Amino acid sequence: MTVVYYTLKRLLMLGPQLLAISLVTFFLIRLIPGNPAAVIAGPLATPETLAGIEARLGLDKPITTQYVIFLQNSLHGDFGTSWYTSQPVLQDLLVRAPATLELITWSLLLAALIGIPLGLASALRPHSFLSRATHAYGLLGGAFPDFFFALLFIYVLFFKLNLLPAPMGRLPANAVAPPHVTGFYLFDSAVNGDWATFRAAALQLIMPVGTLAFVAAGAIVKMTNATVRDVLDARFMAHCRALGMTSPQIARYALRNSLSPVVTVIANTYSYALGGAVLIETVFAWGGMGQYAVQSVLQADYAPLQAFVLFVAAFNLLIYLAVDLIYLLIDPRVSY
Amino acid sequence: MSATAPAHPIPISLGRRREAFSDGARHFWRYLRLHPAALAAFAIMGIELLVTIFAPVIAPYDPEEANPLAVLEAPTQAHLMGTDDSGLDVFSRIIYAGRIDLTIAVAGVGLGMLIGIPAGALVGYYRGVAPDLFMRLMEFLQSFPIFITAMALVAVTGNRIENIIYVMAFLNLPIFVRLVRGEVLSLRGEEYVEAALCSGNSKLRLVLRHVLPNSISSSLVQASVSMGVAILLTAGLSFIGAGVQSPTPEWGVMMSSGARNMILGYWWVSLFPGIAIGIVVWSLAVIGDSLSELLDPARRA
Q1: How far apart are CA A284 and CA A160, in angstroms?
Q2: Domain count within chain B
Q3: Could you read off the pLDDT of B74-89 as tens digits, one per residue?
Q4: CATH of the domain at A213
Q5: Does B9 have pLDDT greater than 70?
Q6: Residue A57 domain flag
Q7: Partners of B83 in the β-ladder
Q8: Confidence of residue B109 (pLDDT cuts 50, 70, 90)
Q9: In this predicted structure, what is the pLDDT of residue A256?
């Protein structure tokens, strides 16, 4: 019962939190010196053109009025129109969301699958070769840009070995997207029994997912390693050893007690992956929200950018809510 | 303190300072001998600084002058790291790029520290509603994915180099505010702080003279890491076309111009600048690690 109550309470708090986010995002972007109308109009625009664009964007009204209008519109699901695609921003984002979410979800699963066991193993054997190798991996993975690994994968796996199809988009040029169920191509094609498309989509996924997972796993390894080490140094672990427990038993207890911080890292990684997706989508012409955001940045397309930032913030809130609920399940010491 | 010392203030303080310095240098050298990775990192950054300063002497070509007769040439003796798709010499550009990337990193992080450290000290020492609100805002700013924030800010301010520096400073502000605030919170209970307060120091003087210097070492550690992140962010921004613009030599821009041709097998255009970023950011991370051990008096033996 308390879990249900707590969840409801947290869901109710989402409203004010989103309001705060919209407030800060809106005013931060507006308070920055720099005039979006001037960026759109270009350096050669006449004052009249500039005034016209300002009026069209509503920038000539007082800033508080602008915010109220923005809020009212957002509540109706109207985040403005992208002047580049001439589509409503919400529609643009919704069409592209599944591509990005499919990408980062698979990346995260893979990263956790690599990162947690590696981190645990290297913490249990602190001076082994494996431990040194994972340490180096953590440092190197964090030192290079994500897109560096992406480009390496493209060169080796596509150009040299020709193991994978051309890294352009979610499906090869001759394939047709599966009928829309969720927008996740793997799921949709599997539901439809279309295994040829499933295979094609999976092959396209390998490189971008591999890149994001490779980088994200570095962070997960580091954090898992540090947490498990702390737990192993704790007094209750010394007690376990004094009782003569075997190392598999000790490893199990250590992991169990490290789970909460590790879940936090995975959550952080999820929101980090959303940022990383912006770069990776550009490399692989993925056509998701990240690429849409890049496009709006390059075109000085204001409305989509603001909506994207809001979406990311809301997504983060939901992730952290999920983390708190998972805590409740995995950590008996936590109660609300 | 030394200003009030009565007899022979100058020779004594100079002598002591020299002694403290050589002591520190010996400690530093011993640490480097025991930690080859740290030695490598400091050496790499030293070399990188020299290369950056003497770029015109070292670089064989003008970094912005394209040679249309040498487009996408593989690495040879004439072009050590090949040329890109407009005939620019990759090696020369990598050398000059350090100027832009390191300037952005140092200036951006430095500016963030200049504002963030005093702000953090004040927020840490004074209690009240305003500091609390300020901290909430800082935490809030940090909750956004950093690359997306950077991208949005550069987009709104316009992608000139000085704006990228301001954005890096802005992104680092909450990091330093929170770091120094935490240090100050833990230091304010220390005995020497209470002693300073009892001997009649004003609160502001107490924060600036006694608490702040003691919280500076963790800021230096963070600065090293932050500079690495700033280089990665700058490269990322330039890579998607929202940062430094071609033909200005910058590592991210260079990778971006090579990315188009990677699929056709022209690996050198992107690979070398990528390695440059990796080496520099790795060194900065290792230097950060070493500083945290070197500046910790408890570890000093």
Answers
A1: 17
A2: 1
A3: 899 889 999 998 889 9
A4: 1.10.3720
A5: no
A6: no
A7: B89
A8: very high
A9: 80
Does residue B220 carry a pLDDT above 70? Answer: yes
What CATH number is attached to the domain comprising B241?
A: 1.10.3720.10
pTM listed for this prediction: 0.87
Q: Quick one: pLDDT band at residue A167, thresholds 50, 70, 90?
A: confident
Q: How far apart are CA B17 and CA B245, in angstroms?
A: 47
How far is residue B52's CA from residue B54's CA, in Å, rounded to a whole number?
6
Residue A204 lies in a domain: yes
Indicate whether B188 pLDDT > 80: no
CB B283 within 8 A of CB A176: no
- Would you call B36 an interface residue with chain A, using a CB distance cutoff of 8 Å? no
**Residues of chain A neighbouring B263 (CB-CB closer than 8 A):** 154, 158-159, 166-167
A43 to each of A29, A199, A298, B40, B97, how far by Cα in Å? 21, 49, 16, 47, 28
Question: Which long-range contacts (C-beta less than 8 Å, at least 24 apart) are formed by B55-62?
Answer: B55/B95, B55/B96, B55/B98, B55/B99, B58/B95, B59/B89, B59/B91, B59/B92, B59/B95, B59/B96, B60/B89, B60/B91, B60/B92, B61/B88, B61/B89, B61/B91, B61/B92, B62/B92
Cross-chain Cβ contact A278/B240 below 8 Å: yes
**Residue A32 contacts B, CB cutoff 8 Å:** yes
Say if A63 falls within a structural domain.
no
Q: What is the domain count for chain A? A: 1
Let me know if residue B42 belongs to a domain: yes
Q: Quick one: pLDDT band at residue B18, thresholds 50, 70, 90?
A: low
Say if CB B268 and CB B75 are below 8 A apart: yes
Assess B262–A contact: CB distance below 8 Å, yes or no: yes
Residue B101 lies in a domain: yes
A128 in a domain, yes or no? yes
User: Does A67 lie at the interface with B, CB-CB under 8 angstroms?
Assistant: no
For residue B299, what pLDDT is reported?
58
Query: Is B147's CB within 8 Å of A143's CB?
Result: no
Name the band, by pLDDT with cuts 50, 70 and 90, for residue B15. low
User: Counting beta carbons within 10 angstroms of the beta carbon of residue A202, is it exposed (0 to 12), middle (13 to 18) or buried (19 or more)?
Assistant: middle
Owning domain of residue A179 = 97-302
Query: Domain for residue B15, yes or no?
Result: no
pLDDT at A7 over 90: no
Mean pLDDT of B52-81: 90
Query: Which of the pair, A26 or B84, is modelled with greater confidence?
Result: B84
User: Which residues 6+ apart lie within 8 Å of A68 measured at CB?
Assistant: none
Shortest Cα–Cα distance, B272 to chain A (Å)? 10
- What is the span of the domain harbouring residue B166? 24-299
Q: DSSP assignment, residue A62?
A: -
Closest residue in B to A317 (Cα) is B143
Residues 247-286 of A with CB under 8 A from B: 271-272, 274-276, 278-279, 282-283
- Which residues in chain B (191-250) have CB-CB distances under 8 A to chain A? 228, 232, 235-236, 239-242
- DSSP letters for B205-219: HIIIIIITGGGHHHH
